[in-house]
Design a protein that fits this description.
alpha/beta; Rossmann fold; Dimethylsulfoxide Reductase, domain 2; 7-stranded mixed sheet; 5-stranded parallel sheet; binds iron/sulfur cluster
């Protein structure tokens, strides 16, 4: 029997709805959630691929490249933790986790005096952000980064604004990118040059997903404060905005400094190896809790499978700060991160 169930896309912070197609309880496909207020019947290729990743999910625990019983792998992690120097243990939190999981991971790390590493695309929290309607209704939009490629359903709002007469100016690393194709004015200038040469007021929105350093973030903040224009940071992971409400993000340099001081690394549903350019062979033991294989699970000493977002309820906070809940749509007896943490306490 075919069934259609609603959920959220976990592949970036825009917060689009997706419909998942189930056949006899198994995930067989997806299509856009037509009446969802964020994406109004569209999903990008990354959104559609999130279901493909689920179909290849990790089913078994791994210890030193060999399949293992899950209870044995959790016991192994407990042993590692009990003999470790807490000051050399780092827990990687991630915007891939739901609010409920982030709360449990943070409490666990703090109760054990472990370090917490949280990387949010080199961005930080902005308390006041533009809504997607603000983007669509803006008179001018400054785009920093290739938003139209990376976060296409925000890109759609930018295109709607342009159709309504808004001027779009942008900067990025590549001259020929998707955002450049629709911008009225596009360059590879620095953020400082870009902000200096454009005029901003309360009818403008600065939308960005990429900065090289925190000085650039401070320039964006100062421009917004001086001109009353709105800002919208858009993150690569679904719940980065929510995670930022509980944990301060580290810059790339701060993450490298933390990793340099780490002997035991616990990675909760993240691909820190892909995010941070660091020699991870310097870390004695890496343990990943993950539902999908990635660069970090591939070099981990222990991998423990976890429930994905399709197998449990939870909530994400999208880029404009709206909390969105989702329900379990697939039955599963895999342990959730929260349940695994209970066993590790
Ligand atoms: S824009 Fe982001 S949230 Fe929307 S479908 Fe694409 S990856 Fe998913």
């Amino acid at each position: 029997m075919l069934e259609i169930k609603h959920t959220l896309c976990p592949s970036c912070s825009v917060g689009c709805g997706i419909n998942v197609v189930l056949k006899e309880g198994d995930v067989v496909g997806s299509f856009p959630y037509k009446r969802h207020p964020v994406n109004e019947g569209k999903n990008c290729v990354n959104g559609r691929n999130s279901i493909e990743a689920f179909k290849n999910k990790i089913e078994e625990a791994i210890i030193s490249n060999s399949k293992s019983d899950i209870d044995k792998a959790i016991d192994e992690v407990s042993k590692e933790l009990s003999s470790a120097d807490a000051s050399k243990v780092t827990v990687i939190c991630s915007g891939n986790n739901s609010m409920e999981e982030i709360g449990a991971i943070k409490d666990f790390a703090e109760s054990k005096n472990f370090n917490i590493g949280f990387y949010a695309d080199n961005l930080v929290n902005f308390d006041e952000v533009a809504s997607y309607d603000d983007v669509e209704n803006a008179k001018a939009i400054a785009v920093i980064g290739d938003l139209l490629y990376d976060n296409p359903l925000i890109g759609r709002k930018i295109i709607h604004a342009k159709q309504n007469g808004a001027k779009i100016c942008g900067i990025g690393k590549e001259e020929n990118c998707v955002t450049a194709n629709i911008a009225d004015d596009y360059s590879t200038d620095s953020i400082q040059e870009f902000l200096n040469k454009n005029t901003f007021d309360e009818s403008c929105v600065i939308v960005f997903n990429e900065v090289d350093n925190h000085e650039d973030l401070e320039l964006i903040k100062a421009t917004a404060a001086d001109s009353n224009c709105k800002v919208l940071p858009v993150f690569s992971k679904s719940n980065t905005k929510g995670t930022l409400s509980l944990i301060d993000a580290k810059s790339k340099e701060e993450m490298i400094e933390l990793l340099d001081n780490t002997k035991l690394l616990l990675v909760f549903n993240d691909d820190v190896v892909n995010d941070i350019d660091f020699d991870f062979s310097k870390i004695s033991k890496i343990i990943s809790f993950a539902y999908v294989e990635n660069d970090t699970t591939n070099i981990s000493d222990i991998v423990i499978p976890i429930k994905s977002w399709l197998e449990q309820e939870g909530s994400f906070v999208n880029a404009m700060g709206e909390s969105q809940t989702f329900n379990a749509i697939v039955e599963s007896d895999v342990l959730s991160e929260v349940e695994i943490i209970e066993k590790l306490k």
